[in-house]
Specification:
The chain has about 350 residues and is an alpha+beta fold. Helix content is about 50%, strand content about 10%. It has 15 helices and 7 strands. A 5-stranded mixed β-sheet has the order 1-2-5-4-3. It has a two-stranded antiparallel ribbon with strand order 6-7. Helix 1 packs across helix 2. The longest helix is centred in the N-terminal third of the chain and has 34 residues. It is globular and about 60 Å long.
Length: about 350
């Protein structure tokens, strides 16, 4: 890990946990060094969190001039995007509520509530789930009835835009593609909660604490096995572990993980959360029976960035179908050793679904 990368992780941990830096030896940074840290933060979609960490630097170590203005402008855009997302969520829940429909919010703004400063978390799309198929169909009729165009995705989900924000209506709550394990996971869908989003008047429905962790857990795994994934999702998982640690159903995470075939994967995931992101071991849902290195996972994360957008060939996903499948196959082969070591069954089913074309690549 080079100096700039080490400085980046030091700032990330400080911002993630709102605490003093654990190592000042990488500072001061040159203007070129700050540029490298900025690029890393952007690629990993953790610019706001790293900026929060910068607040714990002495003034003399802060970036200067144009470099500082780039950070401020990027953070301002993140805050504005979050306000827009909150407005759209309020509109959606009001619109669906008028029809007697109550969607479950997956990840996104629902997870942002786990952060000390939710507006600093970079948001993506709005992901909704309807436990009842009839309710899901009613939601689509509600959207189309308001003149909003709906597009069906290969995995059975639907996508539409509301006030410039992409909304994905998913056919499944969690990303687990082994059909035998998914049936077990499906049976656990209960205990929905209504929570108030911080700083808004919007009440949303979110999964139970245990399902929240499993949703984040399997979402990371899906993308690690494919194109790759950035640090934002790992930060979400770390903050969720920290905030949900005292919830009663979370104590069942060890047994459920073993039952769903996630035990070996969670060994390396938890090692990454504690080793690179600074989550204290006592806040893990459980402590794995054996310690494993997280270096291989670190390599996947840093190579691909946010959802693997910086992996070679990722820019070709809009080309011909055969090229997209070829690039997806190359992506799986690149991570095959890791995948077979930590999640062999899930790798098989996920890869089969992608190559058949009935799963989304994103």
């Amino acid at each position: 890990m080079g100096k700039e990368c080490a400085a980046f992780f030091t700032l990330l941990r400080a911002g993630l946990w709102e605490r003093d830096l654990d190592d000042f030896s990488f500072f001061p940074l040159s203007s070129e060094g700050w540029e490298k840290v900025f690029v890393l933060a952007r690629r990993q979609t953790v610019t706001g969190i790293v900026f929060r960490g910068m607040q714990y630097l002495p003034d003399a170590l802060f970036p200067q001039g144009t470099a500082l203005m780039r950070w401020v402008a990027a953070v301002d855009a993140i805050e504005r995007r979050n306000r827009q997302m909150d407005r759209v969520l309020g509109r959606l829940y009001a619109m669906f509520g008028d029809e007697g429909i109550r969607p479950v919010l997956q990840k996104g703004q629902g997870v942002a509530r786990f952060y000390e400063c939710p507006s600093m978390r970079e948001c993506g799309d709005i992901d909704l789930y309807f436990p009842d198929p009839e309710m899901a169909a009613a939601a689509l009729r509600c959207v189309e009835g308001r003149g909003i165009a709906v597009r069906r995705m290969p995995d059975g989900s639907h996508c539409y835009r509301v006030d410039g924000v992409c909304v994905e209506q998913h056919a499944r709550l969690a990303d687990l593609y082994d059909p035998f394990q998914y049936r077990r996971l499906k049976a656990m869908e209960k205990g929905w909660r209504d929570v108030l989003l911080p700083g808004t008047g919007t009440s949303v429905t979110v999964p139970s604490p245990l399902m929240d962790l499993l949703l984040l857990d399997t979402h990371i795994l899906k993308h690690v096995l494919g194109w790759g994934i950035g640090l934002r999702q790992f930060c979400d998982m770390a903050r969720a572990c920290f905030m949900l640690r005292d919830e009663e159903d979370v104590r069942d995470m060890r047994r459920v993980s073993a039952r769903l075939g996630l035990r070996r994967w969670n060994e390396v995931l938890f090692a990454f959360l504690t080793g690179y992101l600074g989550l204290p071991e006592r806040y893990l849902p459980y402590v794995p029976e054996r310690a494993v290195p997280a270096d291989s996972l670190f390599g996947i994360v840093m190579r691909g960035g946010n959802f693997g957008h910086y992996v070679e060939g990722r820019g070709s996903v809009s080309g011909p179908v055969w090229r997209r499948k070829w690039n997806t196959s190359r992506s799986f082969l690149r991570n095959m050793e890791f995948a077979c070591r930590y999640a062999p069954r899930e790798t098989f089913w996920l890869c089969a679904g992608l190559l058949r074309g009935n799963l989304s690549e994103g």
